[in-house]
Structures are given as C-alpha cells and as structure tokens.
Structure of SDR family NAD(P)-dependent oxidoreductase:
Amino acid sequence: MKTILITGAAKRIGESIVRSLAVDGHNILIHYNNSENEAKKLQNYLKNKKIASSIYKSNLENEKDIETLLEKINSDYGNKLDTIINCASTFGLDSAKNVNSKSFDKHMSTNLLAPIILSKYLANNCVRTRDNNIINIIDQRVLRLNPSYFSYSISKYGLWGATKMMAQEYSPYVRVNGIAPGPIIANTDQSEADFDKEASNTPLGHKPDIYDISNAIKFILSTKSVTGQIIAIDSGQHLSWETPDFVPAKKIDK
C-alpha cells in the first residue's frame, strides 16, 4: 500500500485518478484549492468504501501556502508519503503576441514551480528503502508544439524537462515520470462540437478514456525499472501528421 498525494484531485482527471487508485487500497491525500465541496464529497465516497484518505486545501500559486501544506502532511504522515501525482494545473488562453507577466507567472507558479517544490519535499523526506514515485501530469502538446496557449505550453514543456532532470537527480530512491494526456475532457474555451472534432481527428479516431491515465499510473507504480519517461494518453494525437503543409507524394508518369 502506498501513501499518495494527488494535487488538483477534486475534479476532472484528478478525481478519476483518486477513484481508480483508491480501489487498490492506497492511502489517498486529496489536494484542492477552490473545490471544497467536491473534495469533501470525494472523501465521503472513499470513507463509505472504507478507504483511508485526507483532504488538504492549498493555493499552489503561493509558495508559503505550499510550505503550509507540506507541514500539515508531515505532521499527519511523517515520512510515510511515498508518491506524489502532480495533476493540478492552470490552463489559460494567451499567445506570444499578447502574453503578460500576470498570466505567465500564474501558469509557471502552478504548473511548474509547485510540482518542483512538492517533488523536492518527497525526495528529501522519503524513506530510502522504499520505491518512491513522482508522476507529473503534463500534456501531449509538449511532444508536438503549437503556438496556442502560450504560457500554459511553456510551463508544461518546462515540467517535461524538469521530469527528466529530477529523474536523474533523485535516483535511485525516487522514480520520476510523466503522463501526457490528449483530448480527454473539453477545456473551458472549447465547445463540445469542437472537442468532438478534435478527438475524432486523432490517428485512432476517438477520445482517450480518462481511466487510461490511471492505468498508465498503475503501470509506472508497478514497473520499478521505469524513470524519466513520458507516456502519451492521447489516441496518437502527438503523431498527427496530415497538417496543411503535407503534400502526398505522387507517381510521375514518364
């Protein structure tokens, strides 16, 4: 049994990870920021299933808030925490032409700096005889960059780089890996029709199952020779190749 902190755990992908990992008997630490009702509801669900859990509120944009979160976890669990899944994320629309420091800093603080600080805590406080894990929820776009969602994309690209460097730094006691989701849930700037079109245009022609993220996490947790890797759960979206500049080769009659 592992003791697992999942950030951004009250809704969407985070909630699905909680529900999936909890059935395996792990002790689940649910982090939330603004979704208190959802977090409490999720904890009650786990309680009814007789699964141990705790909930923690923290604004991951604020480093002092993160320090307070870690102090509470340390008080409650000491060095029992052995896995962190960095799922919390800010996702805002901007571009290289209109980016500003407020938007950029918000994305960097939540999506990049917070996972690094939380990971540092685990690496410095974990039991050296255990298999400890950090799993960062990244994005398939880091494997196929485009200029939309500029600050978000840079923060996730940085997190992919940090994943590899932390895997080097924290070996052999902590394994660090990433999951790169594709079109699983429509974002707040996207209509259902546009989302369905995006998902159907992937190489596999359908949206990925949200629980495939949990399946990938379970693979990483159970496969102790894997570190510094990223698994794309995106129906092959990062492999899309029929872009507007693609011109099919044609046989020339001679």
